[in-house]
Amino acid sequence: MAFDPRKLDEIARQLAESLPEGLRHLKSDAEKNFREVLQATLARLDLVTREEFDAQSEVLARARAQLESLSERLERLEQELKSQG
């Protein structure tokens, strides 16, 4: 999954700006290091896109509905067998 580089840059910039005043002279190096660490960490995560998540949620909802329908049908058939026997 690809990440928006602008968002990573923004987060890295915010982290660098949050450094204590005495370390501000390291801002550009810190920002670069923060960006690299963020990219490496996010790359290791097992993430999916929002579109993939939504598609799988729809598949799951359809499967649940079908399971409920089949369960109700099975219950009716079992009741019919009991009433016949």
Number of domains: 2
Q: Work out the radius of gyration.
A: 27 Å
**Backbone structural class:** mainly alpha
| Outline | rod-shaped
SSE succession: HHH
Q: Estimate the mean pLDDT confidence.
A: 89
What is the helix content?
over 70%
- Catalogue the unreliable spans: none
* Biggest sheet features: none
* Number of extended strands: 0
Relative strand content? under 5%
What's the helix count? 3
How far do the termini sit from each other?
58 Å
InterPro entries: UbiK (IPR007475)
Pfam families: BMFP (PF04380)
Protein name: Ubiquinone biosynthesis accessory factor UbiK
Coiled coil: 53-84
Summarize the structure.
78% of the residues lie in helices and 0% in strands. It has 85 residues and is mainly alpha-helical.
Descriptive account of the structure:
It is a single chain. With about 80 residues, this protein is mainly alpha-helical. It folds into 2 domains: about 45 residues, no CATH class; about 35 residues. The protein is built from 3 helices and no strands. The longest helix has about 35 residues.
Give me the secondary-structure topology:
Layout: H1 5-17, H2 27-44, H3 50-84
Q: Features of this protein?
A:
single chain; 85 residues; 3 helices; 2 domains; 0% strand; mainly alpha
